[in-house]
Design brief:
alpha+beta; 3-stranded antiparallel β-sheet; 10 helices; flat
C-alpha cells in the first residue's frame, strides 16, 4: 500500500512539473496562436493602431518619406466561436500579412527585406491589406495607361497621319510593345477574326472569401440536393512568401476543394483553364512609394488629392489598421505594441524569397520535451531507490 501511494505521489509530481513547464511555455506569445483578429489580445493590438484617432489627431505625415514592402503572410487555425450548425466548420483559418516601411531612398526591390535599418515592421489582417493593395494597383495601372497613351504612344489622329492610320491599332501596338496588356480590352483590332469573348474571373471580387457559381455542365450536372458549393479566396503559400487564390468548399475558405493543389484542379475541371493567381502571387515584392505624386492628375486617379498629408491612400490605410513595431524608427512617439507578437515569427530570406517560420512553438516543444524527459528519468531513479530501501527494511 505504501509502495502504491509512493508511485502515485511521484506520478503526480511528474505531471505537476510537466504542467508547470507547459504553463511557463504558454506565456510566451506566439504569433500563430496569439494574434487572432477576433481574439481579445489580437483585437487590442490591432485596435491600438487606431486608438489615438478617437482621442487625438495622429501625425503620420512622415510615412510619405517611406516605401511599403510586403514581407510575407502567415495563417493560423483557431476555434470558430460563431459556428452554430453541423455544416459550419468548428475550426476557422485566420490570415495575417506582415509588411515593412523602408526609407524611400533606401528601399531595394532585389532585397526581400527591403532595407536593413531605419524601418518599421507591421502586421495586419490579410483581407484588409489585400483589398487596399489591389485597389491601389488598379488605380496605378489606370493612371499608367492614361499617361502612356497621352505622352508616349503618339496615336492622336492629327493632320500628320496618313489616310491608312488607325488610332486603335496604334494604341494596341503601343501597349503591347511596353508589356502593358492590362491597358487594352479585347484583341488585336487588325485581326481578321474577332476573338471569342470568354468570361474571365473578376479577381477583385475574391479579395475575401466569396462563392463562385461555375457554369452548368450537362454531362455532370448534379441533383439539386447534391449540388456542391465552391468558394474562392486568398490564402498564404506554405512558405509565407506569396498570397495565392484557392478554391474551397466552405464559406470561410478553410478547407481546400481538392487536396494537394489548393483546389486548382476543381477550377480547371469547371472552367477548362487555370485559376488566375493560383500559382502567381497577388502581391509582388516591389517597393511601393507612400508619397502622393506632385502632379494633381497623378494622385490616385484624383481620389486622394484633397488630402494634405501627402500619403497615398493605400499606405495611409495600411498604417492606420496595422499592429506596429517601430523600435527601429527614428520618429516621435514610436509605437511598439506589436513587437512581441511579431517576434513569434522568424523570417528567413534565401535568393530573394521570403520564408516564414514559426520558431516559438517548436522551441517551446523542445524545451518541454527536455524538461519532461529529465524529470521522468529523475523520478524513476527516485522510485527505484525508495523501493530498494523499503525491500531492505522488510528483510
Amino acid at each position: 500500500e505504501n509502495n502504491r501511494k509512493m508511485k502515485l505521489t511521484v506520478a503526480a509530481f511528474v505531471m505537476a512539473i510537466a504542467s508547470a513547464s507547459a504553463a511557463r511555455t504558454a506565456k510566451k506569445v506566439d504569433l500563430s496562436r496569439g494574434l487572432a483578429a477576433d481574439s481579445k489580445a489580437g483585437s487590442k493590438v490591432l485596435s491600438q493602431a487606431r486608438r489615438v484617432e478617437e482621442d487625438e489627431e495622429v501625425d503620420f505625415t512622415w510615412v510619405a518619406g517611406y516605401s511599403l514592402k510586403f514581407q510575407g503572410c502567415h495563417h493560423m487555425q483557431q476555434w470558430n466561436a460563431e459556428a452554430d450548425g453541423e455544416d459550419e466548420p468548428k475550426i476557422q483559418t485566420k490570415r495575417l500579412v506582415r509588411f515593412r516601411l523602408c526609407p524611400a531612398d533606401a528601399c531595394m526591390y532585389e532585397d526581400a527585406s527591403g532595407c536593413d535599418s531605419g524601418y518599421g515592421d507591421y502586421i495586419i489582417d490579410l483581407n484588409i491589406f489585400l483589398e487596399a493593395y489591389w485597389e491601389n494597383k488598379l488605380e496605378m495601372q489606370e493612371w499608367q495607361c492614361e499617361y502612356t497613351r497621352i505622352n508616349e504612344c503618339g496615336c492622336d489622329d492629327d493632320d500628320g497621319k496618313d489616310d491608312n492610320f488607325n488610332e486603335e491599332s496604334c494604341q494596341y501596338a503601343c501597349f503591347m510593345d511596353r508589356g502593358m496588356d492590362y491597358c487594352w480590352e479585347g484583341g488585336d483590332p487588325d485581326a481578321d477574326d474577332e476573338p471569342e469573348e470568354k468570361e474571365e474571373l473578376e479577381v477583385q471580387e475574391y479579395m475575401e472569401c466569396a462563392q463562385i457559381d461555375f457554369p452548368e455542365d450537362e454531362n455532370r450536372r448534379l441533383e439539386e440536393e447534391e449540388e456542391i458549393q465552391y468558394f474562392i479566396g486568398p490564402y498564404c503559400a506554405e512558405s509565407g512568401s506569396a498570397i495565392l487564390l484557392g478554391v474551397f468548399n466552405d464559406e470561410f475558405c478553410t478547407n481546400f476543394a481538392s487536396e494537394g493543389d489548393a483546389g486548382r484542379s476543381v477550377y480547371y475541371d469547371n472552367m477548362a483553364e487555370a485559376l488566375p493567381y493560383g500559382s502567381e502571387s497577388l502581391v509582388d515584392m516591389n517597393c511601393i512609394p507612400c508619397k502622393e505624386p506632385g502632379d494633381a492628375d497623378m494622385q490616385n486617379n484624383q481620389n486622394d488629392q484633397q488630402d494634405e498629408d501627402e500619403v497615398v491612400e493605400f499606405c495611409e490605410l495600411a498604417y492606420q489598421q496595422a499592429g506596429k513595431c517601430e523600435n527601429r524608427l527614428s520618429i516621435n512617439n514610436p509605437n511598439s505594441n506589436a513587437c512581441t507578437y511579431m517576434s513569434g515569427i522568424s523570417i528567413f530570406r534565401r535568393d530573394g524569397e521570403v520564408i516564414m517560420r514559426d520558431l516559438s512553438s517548436s522551441s517551446a516543444a523542445s524545451v518541454f520535451i527536455g524538461i519532461f524527459s529529465a524529470t521522468f528519468v529523475a523520478a524513476g531513479a527516485y522510485v527505484y531507490y525508495l523501493k530498494t530501501k523499503l525491500d531492505r527494511a522488510k528483510i
